[in-house]
């Protein structure tokens, strides 16, 4: 986990909403050039989506967008 993913998780854990944040992942493209799309959901509502060549990078970008939209530092 990276900075924004941790910030998002900590925000909800501190409010005792441990399972509020969930992730959906989709991979696409040929095996030698996979693309990952990660979707961040908070209490079932889609907050952000990001796509990158690496799963972790896509997740961190989706977390960054989510933090920005939700006002989480």
Describe the protein's architecture and organization:
- There is one protein chain.
- This protein is of the alpha+beta class and 73 residues long.
- The protein is built from two helices and three strands, in the order H-E-E-E-H.
- It has helices at 3-13, 55-70; strands spanning 21-28, 35-42, 45-52.
- A three-stranded antiparallel sheet has the order 1-2-3.
- The longest helix has 16 residues, at 55-70.
Oligomer: single chain
Task: Tell me what the CATH architecture is.
Answer: 2-Layer Sandwich
Query: Strand tally, please?
Result: 3
Widest β-sheet, arrangement of strands: 1-2-3
Mean pLDDT: 96
Q: Which regions have little confidence, pLDDT < 50, spanning 5+ residues? A: none
Give a summary of the structure in a few sentences.
This protein has 73 residues and is α+β, with helices and mostly antiparallel strands. The protein has helices spanning 3-13, 55-70; strands at residues 21-28, 35-42, 45-52. The protein is built from two helices and three strands, in the order αβββα.
Question: How are the SSEs ordered, and which strands pair?
Answer:
Elements: H1 3-13, E1 21-28, E2 35-42, E3 45-52, H2 55-70
Antiparallel strand pairs: 1-2, 2-3
Domain DRBM: 1-72
InterPro entries: dsRBD_dom
GO molecular function: RNA binding
Defining traits:
73 residues; alpha+beta; RNA-binding; Double Stranded RNA Binding Domain; 2 helices
